[in-house]
């Protein structure tokens, strides 16, 4: 468990890394090394093409190519020998997912005298683990953390279970729990008396299936990738149902998460969530102020042209921090 106390007396502390750069510890700096990747995963070779300037790459508009690339990245960099997802489910861009993990490690270090806590004593709850289980895979490989992954979708959980079962080093590293009630996020997942050093979440982005479909169509029109009748091809990164949308979209999901976090305020050191839409950030900070979270941080992240951020909050004052340390050993 996290041991040291963190600084008090701030409500909003933004941190901005160097623009458009991955976290310094991110393994995916610069161009992909297709020599290393194909050596580890020969199946990727079938999808490697030459760019206009003769450099190796893949067609990122091809879902099969993106899936093969992810398998190669997970095997070469994170020791995941088998990884698969059901057709149509989200195939995540790994460099960006790794960034969230590394910046959360920095957050834990700030609460631990500047030292990143490693090993299975650090427990993390991944809210919406998905079919791909990407955050626990990266977090365990990089820092040895133990994860609980929750999801409302039984098909997604079955897929994540299959990934864990196929990689025996994960047997004791990742536990899966089903959220049985659509109206809850933490309730029914966080058990009485258990504690987490950290929670993380990549909320559904869209407010409806219609919005998600329109967004996909706009992206594909921008790439010129449409079929006759103007129906878009399937997305390269995919995504189904609860992965992409929920009632009220990202804003309402995060509001519910904040409200529920108050109910388990003494069982989690740091709560966190990605906030993809910058326009949602002011409301998120207002909601955190309403529930009385005394410690809040906003960390900006960037991967190339894409910008995102996460917000973290804690309810633990100095005495609660000391108690956490004493109970955690």
TrEMBL record:
<keyword id="KW-0489">Methyltransferase</keyword>
<dbReference type="GO" id="GO:0052907">
    <property type="term" value="F:23S rRNA (adenine(1618)-N(6))-methyltransferase activity"/>
</dbReference>
<dbReference type="GO" id="GO:0070475">
    <property type="term" value="P:rRNA base methylation"/>
</dbReference>
<dbReference type="InterPro" id="IPR010286">
    <property type="entry name" value="METTL16/RlmF"/>
</dbReference>
<comment type="similarity">
    <text>Belongs to the methyltransferase superfamily. METTL16/RlmF family.</text>
</comment>
<comment type="function">
    <text>Specifically methylates the adenine in position 1618 of 23S rRNA.</text>
</comment>
<keyword id="KW-0808">Transferase</keyword>
<dbReference type="InterPro" id="IPR016909">
    <property type="entry name" value="rRNA_lsu_MeTfrase_F"/>
</dbReference>
<dbReference type="Pfam" id="PF05971">
    <property type="entry name" value="Methyltransf_10"/>
</dbReference>
<protein>
    <recommendedName>
        <fullName>Ribosomal RNA large subunit methyltransferase F</fullName>
        <ecNumber>2.1.1.181</ecNumber>
    </recommendedName>
</protein>
<dbReference type="InterPro" id="IPR029063">
    <property type="entry name" value="SAM-dependent_MTases_sf"/>
</dbReference>
<dbReference type="GO" id="GO:0005737">
    <property type="term" value="C:cytoplasm"/>
</dbReference>
<keyword id="KW-0963">Cytoplasm</keyword>
<keyword id="KW-0949">S-adenosyl-L-methionine</keyword>
<keyword id="KW-0698">rRNA processing</keyword>
């Amino acid at each position: 468990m996290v041991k040291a106390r963190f600084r008090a007396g701030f409500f909003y502390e933004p941190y901005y890394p160097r623009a458009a750069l991955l976290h310094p510890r991110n393994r995916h700096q610069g161009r992909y090394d297709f020599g290393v990747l194909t050596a580890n995963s020969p199946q990727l070779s079938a999808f490697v093409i030459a760019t206009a300037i003769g450099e190796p790459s893949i067609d990122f508009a091809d879902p099969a190519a993106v899936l093969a690339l992810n398998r190669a990245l997970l095997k070469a960099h994170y020791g995941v020998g088998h990884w698969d997802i059901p057709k149509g489910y989200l195939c995540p861009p790994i460099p960006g997912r790794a960034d969230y993990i590394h910046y959360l490690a920095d957050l834990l270090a700030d609460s631990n005298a500047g030292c990143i806590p490693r090993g299975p004593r650090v427990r993390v709850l991944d809210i919406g683990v998905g079919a791909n289980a990407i955050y626990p895979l990266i977090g365990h490989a990089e820092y040895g953390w133990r994860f609980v992954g929750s999801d409302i979708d039984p098909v997604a959980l079955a897929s994540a279970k299959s990934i864990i079962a196929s990689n025996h080093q994960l047997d004791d590293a990742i536990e899966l729990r089903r959220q049985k009630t659509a109206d809850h996020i933490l309730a029914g997942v966080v058990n009485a008396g258990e504690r987490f050093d950290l929670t993380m979440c990549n909320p559904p982005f869209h407010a409806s299936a219609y919005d998600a479909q329109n967004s996909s169509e706009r992206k594909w029109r921008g790439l010129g990738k449409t079929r006759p009748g103007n129906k878009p091809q399937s997305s390269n990164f995919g995504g189904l149902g609860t992965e992409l949308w929920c009632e009220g979209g990202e804003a309402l999901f995060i509001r519910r998460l904040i409200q529920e976090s108050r109910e388990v305020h003494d069982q989690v050191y740091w709560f966190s969530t990605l906030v993809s839409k910058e326009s949602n950030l002011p409301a998120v900070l207002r909601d955190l102020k309403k529930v009385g979270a005394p410690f809040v941080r906003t960390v900006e992240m960037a991967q190339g042209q894409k910008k995102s951020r996460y917000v973290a909050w804690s309810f633990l004052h100095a005495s609660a921090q000391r108690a956490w340390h004493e109970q955690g050993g």
